[in-house]
Amino acid sequence: MYNSKITGLGFYVPDNVVTNDDLSKMMDTNNEWIIERTGIEERRWIPEGSEDTTAVMGAKAARIAIERSGLTKDDIDFIVFATLSPDYYFPGSGVQVQDMLDMPTIGAIDIRNQCSGFVYALSTADQFIKTGMYKNILVIGSEFHSSGLDKTTRGRGVSVLFGDGAGACVLSQTEDKSKGILSTHLHSEGKYADKLIVSSPSSTKWFPELVATEGKDLSYYPHMDGTFVFKHAIVRFSQAIMEGLSANNLTVDDLDMFIPHQANLRISQFVQHKFKLSDDQIYSNIMKYGNTTAASIIIALTEAWEKGKIKDDDLIVLAAFGSGFTWGSAVIRW
What we know:
Blueprint lengths: L2 E10 L4 E3 H5 L6 H8 L3 E3 L9 H16 L8 E5 L10 H8 L6 E5 L5 H14 L5 E8 L12 H4 L5 E10 L5 E9 L7 E2 L9 H6 L10 E2 L1 H22 L9 E4 L4 H10 L11 H4 L6 H11 L8 E8 L3 E8 L1
Parallel strand pairs: 4-5, 4-6, 11-12
Antiparallel strand pairs: 1-7, 2-3, 6-7, 8-13, 9-10, 12-13
Helix pairs in contact: 3-4, 8-9
């Protein structure tokens, strides 16, 4: 058995900044209302006419991560791509990255676990490396939300939250059992699937059925019971953190950096207060990027590392909660 460690990090976000004041021109909202409820000040949206897509952004982030790892594209053995907004209904975005980076005919899988997507993807890659099947795996989280949001007053409760972007890391095999991913922990509770959902198009409601409603069926837009999701998120975040620490005989006092999924700044602040974490022990960037779903944790991890907030031998916990419901955590010794 081996351990896996992150050897390269990278992220990419579109240049186009959309502020809360910009949104107030599209819907009945304002800067104060959005900041009070979410902590978000701005987000990145892919502008019309851009070459960027979910797969393209993922490839851009991947190139940076591979270069920083000291490897080449030909050293990568496998791709794990997490997203809820793939370029196509099928095939998945992982095979597109394989082509865009002109990689050998390595395997690629897509992970569909929404806000928990990156934690699930990291855990999946970790298992492949621990068993010795692969040595270097490219793990990507990427989302193109802005093309699928209801940008009217009707949809403001969801649309103000989400941004576009991608992050990637290279996970590599190591024989040092004291470093790298110490453990991952994954959960789901499907009875609440309808609390945060895009229910169509689907195999039970395809495009002809939607068209027949003459615009009255809006189930292709995201639906969220925000209060319900918030209440469950703060419970599951706390459980995920403690599960990961306990599994490694660690306590909150051992934690150097907590990087949560960037769903809502109020959730992160609640968790920070509950565990009495200092500002240096938690990293949030939702203020700048909004909720980028499967990309949020890897973007935040990369940015924190770039700023020197993550150092050798630091103990890091990643945790996420989202649609499904799914949630999970990863404990990493840097």
